[in-house]
Write a structure and sequence with these properties.
By secondary structure, the chain is α/β, with parallel strands linked by helices. Helix content is 52%, strand content 11%. The strands form three sheets. The chain has a five-stranded parallel β-sheet, with helices on both faces. The chain has a five-stranded parallel β-sheet with strand order 7-8-9-6-10, sandwiched between helices. The longest helix has 52 residues.
Length: 538
C-alpha cells in the first residue's frame, strides 16, 4: 500500500510530531506535509499532552528518549485519559532492542520507526495506521448506529404491542373493556401481564412446586386461567382444583373423591378413574388420591401433569384435619427420588392464608419445597394499554389513567373497577373529575359498606388472627413509627394477607391512597377503642 500523493481525494490526517530535537521535528514535517498531512509539533512530553488534549490529532509520532518525561511515560498518560486514549501512537526510537520494543507495545504504542528513519517507511506506517484508525472509528460508529437502531426497533415493537392490545380493547363492548372481580378469560383484552406470569410459567416448565399466598382480588385465578391455557397448548395435562367449589360439609372420603372427580372431569378421563375406584376401595382417601395421580402419570409417560390448588384457605373451615392433604402433596414431591413418573407432576398452591395457618407441622408442609411467586400490583408501564379503553379516541386518556393510578397504585381490582367507572362516564375529562368519581365509588360511606374489596380488607383486619395487634401495627405504619418486625410476625402476616400494606423503599407503607383515606387514623382509633370494641365496626 502506497501513501496517496498530494491532490488525492482521500482525506489526510493530522499528525503530532513529538521530539526534543528541532532537526528531527522539522525533518518529519518536511516528510509529511508534501503528502497532505497537517503537522503539529511538540518539543516535550508535557507539551505533547497539552496539544493532544486541545487539537485532537489523528496520530502521534513520539520520540522515546526526551528530556522531562520520556516517550513511554507520555504514552501512558495519554492512554489513561478518555479524550486521548484512542489516538494511535508510533514510537520513534534509536534503540531497536527487544526490551525497548516490548515496552513500546506494552504502554499502548501501535508501531515503531527506528532512527535514522527513512521517509518512505515513515509515510507507509503513518498512512497504514491512520487507515486502520479510520476503519476502527467507522466500525465503532456503525456499531453505535446499529445499537441505536436496535433500541429504536425494540421501542417500536413495544409500542406496537401496546397499540395492538389497545386496539383490541376498542372492539369490545364497554362492559368488557375492564373487569373487576372474578376470573378473566385467558384471552381477555383487559388482562395485564406481570412478572408473576413469567415467573410462574418458568417454574412450572422447570417442574418446580410453587405457591402464591396473597390477599384477595389480586388476579390469582385469572393468572391460573391464562397459564393453564398456555400449558395445555404445549401438551401438558392441567387440572385446576378450586377447593371452595367442593363445599365444606363433607367427610374426608367425600372431599378427596371430589378432588379426584374434578381431576378426571378436567382431563376428560372420568370413566377411566371411575373404573379404578373399586381397586382402591380399601385404601384410605389420601392413599386413593396419591394412587390416582400415580396412575395418570404412569399411563401417560410422555406428558407432564400440573395441578393448581386454589382457595387453600377453605380448608380451615372443613370439619376434619387437612394436614394429611398437605402431607400428600409433599409425599408426591418426595416420590421423585424413587419414581421417575412423579418428576412430571407439579403443584401450584394458591390462597389467602399463611403457611402456619394451614399446617402446623413443618415436617409435613409443602411450602418449604417450592418457590414463592410474588404477585405485585400493576406497574405504570404495565397498565398503559388500558388507557385506550378509557377513551376510544384517545383524547386525554393517558392523563385520566395516570390519575387513576395515583389513587390505586396499580391494585388490580381497584384499577379495573375505577377504569370501568371512568369509561362509563364520558363527562369525566379532568383529574378533578376523576377525584370526584373516586370519592363516589370508593371513599363514601355507602361505597365502603358495599365495595367487595374494601369489605374484605376491613373484615380481614377485624376478624383475622389477633386483630388488635394487627391494627396497632397498622397504626404505627400509618404514622411512620413502625417497629422492626420479621416477615413471619403474625401481625405483619395479617396485614399482608388483608392487602392493606406493601413494602416500598425499605419500609412498610399503606398500599394505596384509597386505603389511606378509607382506613385512616380516626377509623383505626375508633375500632381500637375499648368503648367500641364490641360494637359493629364503622
Amino acid at each position: 500500500m502506497n501513501p496517496s500523493p498530494v491532490g488525492s481525494d482521500e482525506p489526510r490526517g493530522t499528525v503530532l510530531v513529538v521530539d526534543d530535537i528541532a532537526a528531527n521535528r522539522n525533518l518529519l514535517r518536511e516528510t509529511l506535509e508534501p503528502h497532505g498531512y497537517e503537522v503539529l509539533l511538540a518539543a516535550s512530553g508535557e507539551t505533547a499532552i497539552d496539544v493532544a488534549l486541545r487539537a485532537h490529532p489523528d496520530l502521534l509520532l513520539l520520540d522515546v528518549n526526551m528530556l522531562g518525561i520520556d516517550g513511554f511515560e507520555t504514552c501512558r498518560q495519554l492512554k489513561a485519559r478518555q479524550e486521548t486514549s484512542g489516538q494511535p501512537i508510533i514510537f520513534i526510537t534509536a534503540n531497536d532492542g527487544t526490551e525497548s520494543l516490548v515496552e513500546a507495545f506494552r504502554v499502548g504504542g501501535v508501531d515503531y520507526v527506528t532512527k535514522p528513519f527513512k521517509a518512505e517507511e515513515v509515510l507507509m506506517r503513518v498512512h497504514t495506521h491512520l487507515e486502520i484508525s479510520r476503519l476502527n472509528r467507522a466500525l465503532r460508529d456503525q456499531n453505535q448506529e446499529l445499537s441505536s437502531l436496535n433500541r429504536a426497533l425494540q421501542a417500536e415493537v413495544r409500542r406496537r404491542q401496546q397499540a395492538e392490545q389497545s386496539l383490541s380493547l376498542l372492539g369490545q363492548q364497554q362492559a368488557e373493556r375492564f373487569h373487576a372481580g372474578g376470573t378473566l378469560r385467558h384471552d381477555a383484552p383487559c388482562y395485564i401481564e406481570r412478572q408473576a406470569d413469567r415467573d410462574l410459567l418458568a417454574a412450572l416448565q422447570a417442574g418446580e412446586f410453587s405457591h402464591i399466598l396473597t390477599s384477595r382480588q389480586m388476579g390469582k385465578s385469572s393468572l391460573v386461567a391464562r397459564i393453564a391455557h398456555m400449558l395445555r397448548r404445549q401438551g401438558t395435562l392441567v387440572a385446576s382444583l378450586d377447593l371452595a367449589a367442593l363445599g365444606t360439609n363433607l367427610t374426608p372420603d367425600q372431599w378427596y373423591d371430589g378432588l379426584i372427580a374434578r381431576i378426571g372431569w378436567q382431563l376428560q378421563i372420568e370413566d377411566e378413574l371411575e373404573s379404578l375406584a373399586s381397586q382402591w376401595e380399601r385404601h384410605g382417601p389420601v392413599q386413593r388420591f396419591i394412587a390416582t395421580l400415580g396412575h395418570i402419570l404412569e399411563s401417560r409417560p410422555d406428558q407432564r401433569l400440573v395441578l393448581f390448588v386454589d382457595e387453600l384457605d377453605v380448608v380451615r373451615g372443613l370439619p376434619f384435619s387437612t394436614g394429611e392433604f398437605f402431607a400428600a402433596i409433599r409425599e408426591c414431591y418426595n416420590r421423585r427420588s424413587e419414581s421417575a413418573a412423579f418428576t412430571r407432576l407439579t403443584f401450584t398452591l394458591l390462597g389467602v392464608a399463611s403457611p402456619s395457618e394451614l399446617i402446623a407441622q413443618e415436617s409435613m408442609t409443602p411450602f418449604n419445597i417450592g418457590g414463592r411467586i410474588e404477585l405485585h400490583d400493576f406497574s405504570w408501564p404495565e397498565i398503559l394499554p388500558l388507557a385506550r379503553g378509557l377513551r376510544p379516541d384517545g383524547q386525554g386518556a393517558e392523563e385520566l389513567l395516570e390519575r387513576i393510578y395515583f389513587w390505586t397504585h396499580g391494585h388490580p381490582y381497584l384499577t379495573q373497577k375505577f377504569c370501568r367507572a371512568v369509561a362509563a362516564d364520558n363527562s369525566v375529562q379532568t383529574t378533578t373529575e376523576v377525584d370526584e368519581l373516586c370519592a363516589k365509588h370508593f371513599l363514601g360511606r355507602k361505597a365502603v359498606e358495599q365495595d367487595d374489596n374494601l369489605l374484605f380488607v376491613r373484615e380481614r383486619l377485624l376478624r383475622g388472627m389477633d386483630p388488635a395487634c394487627c391494627l396497632r401495627l397498622y397504626r404505627s405504619i400509618r404514622v411512620g413509627s413502625a417497629p422492626e418486625v420479621s416477615d413471619n410476625d403474625p401481625a405483619l402476616v395479617g396485614l399482608r394477607l388483608s392487602g392493606i400494606v406493601r413494602f416500598a423503599e425499605g419500609r412498610w407503607v399503606v398500599r394505596n391512597r384509597i386505603y389511606e383515606r378509607v382506613f385512616d387514623i380516626p377509623w383505626t382509633d375508633r375500632v381500637l377503642s375499648p368503648a367500641t370494641a364490641h360494637a359493629k365496626p364503622a
